[in-house]
Amino acid sequence: HIAPDADASIRETDNDAAVARLSAAQKGYLHDPYIRHLVPRAHLQQPRPPLINVGTYVRGAAIDALVEQWLQIADKKTKKCQIVSLGAGSDTRFWRIANGTHKDTLATYVEVDFPEVTTRKAMSIRKSKELGAILGGDIQGGTALHAGKYHLLPGDLRMGPTALSTLLTGILDSSLPTLLLFECVLVYMVPSASDAVLRWFVDYFSDAKTPLGAVVYEMFNLEDAFGKVMVSNLKSRNVSIPGAEPYRNLEALSQRFLSTGFNTAHSETLREIRRTWIAPDELERLSMLEMLDEIEELELVLEHYAVSWGLAASGADASWGGWG
Ligand code: SAM
């Protein structure tokens, strides 16, 4: 037997996320004209079930809301900000922002993922006229890609502080407000490794006293019967999730920020977010797209995912993410 490559299984999860996003876009849940350029053979992909489409929508809407608010505050206060997406996979957020109302506020956008993932993404970007047009200029790239404000960087987030410094110093300006996005990635690493990543950023930005925000999206609360099914499904695909173990409730998710140097932290389940962040007419619109017979089943699924967010540095705008 050849030992299965655990990291290869983790990288595979990007395909799930991208195909789910493509499906939600094709079914009209969300608007994303870019994702089809990043999914291989996009036109041949089968749509995902309604439950997955709704979940993908709620997750995206939650992170969109936090990012939008961050950009709005930066618009008013500093005129410039940076966003760093860790474990970015095939995410299209850069193109959505770069083609949106806050494009001038975004000074730098960095994505980090395993080299296998960044190489593939860099290739897709170079192949797509539409993605390339938004990047503009001369697109350089192999395992990394640099074009204008956009930087796609290969790296293993478990690399430790010295390697993180080597990767990011020179690209990130420590005097600009910076938002970190960890969308379904910290769960794949042991807590000591993810804490080290959060601490590195807190340290990097602490001297300038510039606001540092972070958003984490994650599965959690996996102790009950449904959670155990989620864990065993992942295990059958050789995906282990050591980063889920300590996070049994929302308090624990918030505590992660406080114990790594952030000053404030909030957490909410996707179930709560669907109920309270999404406008009634938007929920109405979604309910017309596809038949979803069991709201209880949807809520059970959404209770096993959470968004948490924290803010570090004095003088930071406490109104960011000021829900709940
Ligand atoms: N954030 C994207 C999204 O939400 O669409 C992708 C999510 S996907 C479930 C997880 C991503 O995290 C994969 O692209 C995987 O390669 C990346 N990842 C997991 N562990 C990583 C690590 N140690 N270093 C770098 N990337 C990692």
Give a verbal description of the structure.
The protein has 324 residues and is an alpha/beta fold. The protein has a single domain, classed as Vaccinia Virus protein VP39 (Rossmann fold, 3-Layer(aba) Sandwich). Helices cover 45% and strands 16% of the residues. The protein has helices at residues 6-26, 50-77, 93-98, 115-127, 129-135, 161-168, 191-206, 225-236, 250-259, 270-276, 280-289, 295-302; strands spanning 81-86, 106-113, 140-141, 145-147, 150-154, 178-183, 212-219, 264-269, 305-312. It has a 9-stranded mixed sheet with strand order 3-4-5-2-1-6-7-9-8, with helices on both faces. Strand 4 (145-147) and strand 5 (150-154) form a beta hairpin. Helix 1 (6-26) crosses helix 2. The longest helix has 28 residues, at 50-77. The protein is globular. The mean pLDDT is 93. Bound molecules: S-adenosylmethionine (SAM). S-adenosylmethionine binds at residues 10-11, 13-14, 17, 87-89, 91, 113-114, 117, 156-158, 183-185, 188-189. The site of S-adenosylmethionine has 20 residues, from helix 1. Pfam families: LCM. It is an enzyme of class 2 (transferase). S-adenosyl-L-methionine binds at residues 59, 87, 156-157, 183.
